[in-house]
Design brief:
Strand order of the largest sheet: 1-2-7-8
CATH class: Mainly Beta
Order of helices and strands: EEHEEEEHEE
CATH architecture: Sandwich
CATH topology: Hypothetical Protein Aq_1857, Chain: A
Number of helices: 2
Distance between the termini: 8 Å
CATH superfamily: HesB-like domain
């Protein structure tokens, strides 16, 4: 299963069009899990926002969902949002989990055919 940033639509369905930011299943699950608070409940008005700093490094933070955001939906919930210009800059990239030296973290890599 693949999730992709899509243009906003009433059903909040993920787009399956090629050339968008793709979220690997393990990364989608990690983002989904991170949105639950300590009590096990979730706030549907917030999501993880992906942004780029001035050095084009990826940043992830919990954020309100803004009008016009492009959204990634996983398991019926908006898990990742991006402003349109950020989403456009990430076309053809996949947000994935990478483990290095026993530590796991999010990474952006070129989208492979297996991600689509």
């Amino acid at each position: 299963m693949r999730s992709a940033i899509s243009t906003p639509d009433p059903a909040d369905r993920p787009s399956t069009a090629a050339g968008e930011l793709t979220v690997a299943p393990e990364a989608a699950l990690a983002l989904h899990t991170a949105l639950y608070d300590d009590n096990g409940s979730e706030n549907q008005t917030r999501a993880i926002r992906i942004s780029l700093d001035t050095s084009n490094r990826m940043r992830l933070s919990v954020s309100d969902i803004w009008e016009g955001d492009r959204k990634v939906v996983f398991d019926g919930r908006i898990i990742l949002v991006a402003e349109p210009e950020v989403a456009d800059a990430l076309v053809g990239r996949t947000l994935a989990i990478q483990t290095t030296g026993g530590r796991a973290g999010f990474t952006l890599r070129p989208t492979r055919d297996a991600d689509a």
